[in-house]
Design a protein that fits this description.
Two copies of one chain form a homodimer. Chain A is an alpha/beta fold and 414 residues long. The first copy, chain A, has a six-stranded mixed β-sheet with strand order 2-1-3-8-7-6, with helices on both faces. A five-stranded mixed β-sheet of chain A has the order 14-13-15-16-17, sandwiched between helices. Chain A has a four-stranded antiparallel β-sheet with strand order 10-11-9-12. In chain A, helix 11 runs parallel beside helix 16. Chain A is globular and about 80 Å long.
């Protein structure tokens, strides 16, 4: 079973957009037990598209195309597919009526350009796109399936999840595969790998463990080739073993972010959180507020970048800043006390560190950070030392702070 | 002149990483006047790599490879290149000595695995990598240049800029091309296109205009094929014309972000800024603090997500929140007044809106935002209506707020 992805569009080749669709499709196929054979990006050019289709057909049973279906580019890609599959375009009345209704509703005039998007190749099965005007198209030839989808990521993903993957599963028998994922934080890849060394060596040969580190978190994925309740139970048992070995490093089962796990904990408990950020400069607040519905538990916070804001809004003592400096246990404790006094929040986080490239001192190199978490009753402060560059530090500091808060809420931080 | 990019690595095909190298290389070649012919991503597999090399050789004069050179994968990619170019690996003593020194300095033991990275194919010109242990390799065969580089983005970019591009310019005559870029904000692509309609029609046929919209900004790039002072003067004159037509929409020449332009303005004037954010939830603070050195002019701010923080820290009146609501002119004015009272900042920004998906009311749909900017002397508030989804709204709101502040600082907002 092989699959090839072809992404079409001059904007990819001139670097105007980063092709994120391929990585997403790669993940989806990986979950289905298939590693993509190849990803090919070509321009809006019929000769190149046909060349890519031929190459993909010779190697793969599934060929996924994204992009090149917008109204202005319509002619090239759809026309190329029509030529390739020796078919013709027919107006789909239903699509056309719907399109006219949508335009009318928005008070816009439907253009001839738009009508071309309701022209569908006769030889394909149309996959209705409920989120845009470019329809999905499913062609079959010589046992190979070609699916053409719009390049707009959320339209493509919706088509894949609701229509393409179910249809592919009907037509092909994918390798039987079982996945189990847990998320960890608070330890780097090497610490996790070291902890799991014997566990990994003892894994049955049909179960593999993958480490997928991100800034401050490590995703652990068990993959087993095969099927049946026995194997499912075996994978589940191995996952439990791994969870026990990793203990408090584990923050979730399945793919999930720290900010969303904390959000769920707070909703359960009917509690709230706020933050006082120096070096992370609003990024922790941004992580919290990136989650839809976070207003239920996120109160807000203070970005105390300057000494002035630290003193005036958070009440950090001038003497603290002048004696031990902003990157100190005393400072993050005072920041957090001030924050909890100024708000009616259950929990708070405060962070002060050196993200770089400037601001380092001999005893506080770039990557040094103090983090405090706590409530009105109790505050815990910890110092960390990370290595990477400014943007990476901002992210890794933020994840470290979120993880400390998680442990604090769970009563596991002393 | 054609160029192909081959990115190598199983991690790309399973979607573990998004290939950003290709887009960056696409941009670089676009600046050199060459549109990439094709981007091919293959796994760590000798047969596939050779197939991709052959295809690239038949279409292109320049073939750029990234990835697959880490110590653990070393065998496959470098060995494949050695086979393809019928050469052999030789230990490069200089590279090996340097590597040992670096490891010693860090107190680490150099491993046999690392020694393999000092083995360099005899037939290539080595391009020393000062930022990592995988060296660049330049091969030439039948008039085609193949350059293999590490996949770590900052290592690859540094090699490209300091060594590969200069060498390519020596060897090939690239199409003569002149670029001129200006950045605009405060108007969507359609407004900008409408304003520039006649200008674009009147452009000399050898000068093209491209619109590159992002969330809240539009990059405008003039590209002329050719060379010489006359053409340079012509492009410069057209750029000036465009600047006059677009007036205050123009915020920079060359590629630059709003937060960095504002930073420079503030440094010049020895002034500072802070922000009070509701719906943008810390993202504006994050944009400011993403710029190294921003502590010179960014004081910080308040993320007033809840009513409580709005009232207690910023002093927004309870009666305002209960009568006209948080998404109102009154609220953003009070947020900003409170912020300017609580800090000693020259300028402030405040934002309150509905990022979605929840929180909309019949008269305040998702995408509604009130933004105030100002100083102790004067505050200006504006309402905007945007359309996209939550994450896009957070970004587009933030850019709109930064642009208003820019205009305010320049005395152009009334």
């Amino acid at each position: 079973m092989k699959a090839t992805v072809i992404t079409i569009g001059d904007e990819i080749l001139i670097g105007q957009i980063v092709d994120t669709n391929s990585a997403w499709l790669g993940q989806k196929f990986s979950e289905l037990g298939v590693k993509l054979h190849e990803i090919i990006s070509v321009g809006d050019d019929a000769v190149q598209i046909i060349d890519a289709l031929n190459r993909a057909k010779s190697s793969s049973q599934i060929v996924l195309l994204t992009g090149g279906l917008g109204p202005t580019k319509d002619d090239i890609t759809k026309k190329t597919l029509v030529d390739y599959f020796q078919t013709e375009l027919v107006l789909n009345e239903e699509v056309w009526e719907k399109m006219k209704q949508i335009f009318e509703k928005r008070g816009l005039k439907v253009l001839e350009m738009n009508r071309s998007q309701a022209m569908i190749p006769k030889a394909c099965t149309m996959l209705p796109n409920t989120r845009g005007t470019a329809q999905g198209m499913w062609f079959g030839i010589e046992g190979v399936v070609f699916v053409s989808m719009p390049g707009v990521p959320h339209e493509m993903k919706h088509l894949m999840e609701t229509q393409v993957i179910p249809k592919l599963k009907e037509k092909f028998s994918f390798p039987k595969i079982i996945h189990a994922t847990i998320m960890s934080a608070g330890a780097g890849e090497s610490v996790i790998a070291n902890t799991l060394n014997d566990f990994e060596n003892d894994l049955p040969s049909n179960i593999k463990l993958a480490y997928l580190p991100d800034l401050g978190t490590v995703k652990l994925r068990l993959t087993a080739s095969g099927d049946g309740d026995e194997l499912k139970n075996e994978v589940a048992a191995q996952k439990e073993k791994m969870k026990i070995l990793l203990g408090d490093f584990v923050y979730a089962e399945g793919e999930e972010k720290l900010e969303s796990v904390i959000g769920k904990l707070l909703i359960e408990r009917n509690e709230t959180v706020s933050c006082a950020e120096s070096c992370t400069g609003g990024y922790i607040a941004h992580l919290f507020t990136s989650v839809p519905g976070s207003s239920k538990y996120f109160d807000g916070g203070v970005v105390s970048y300057s000494y002035d804001v630290k003193e005036k809004i958070l009440g950090v003592k001038n003497s603290t800043l002048n004696s031990v400096g902003a990157v100190s246990e005393e400072c993050v404790r005072e920041m957090l006390e001030g924050l909890l006094k100024a708000t009616v929040t259950t929990y708070g986080i405060s962070v002060s560190g050196i993200a770089g490239p400037d601001g380092a001192t001999p005893d506080k190199p770039v990557g040094t950070v103090w983090i405090a978490v706590g409530s009105k009753e109790k505050i815990v402060a910890k110092k960390f030392q990370f290595f990477p560059s400014r943007m990476e530090n901002i992210r890794v500091f933020s994840n470290a702070a979120l993880n400390l808060l998680r442990l604090f809420i769970l009563g596991k931080l002393n």
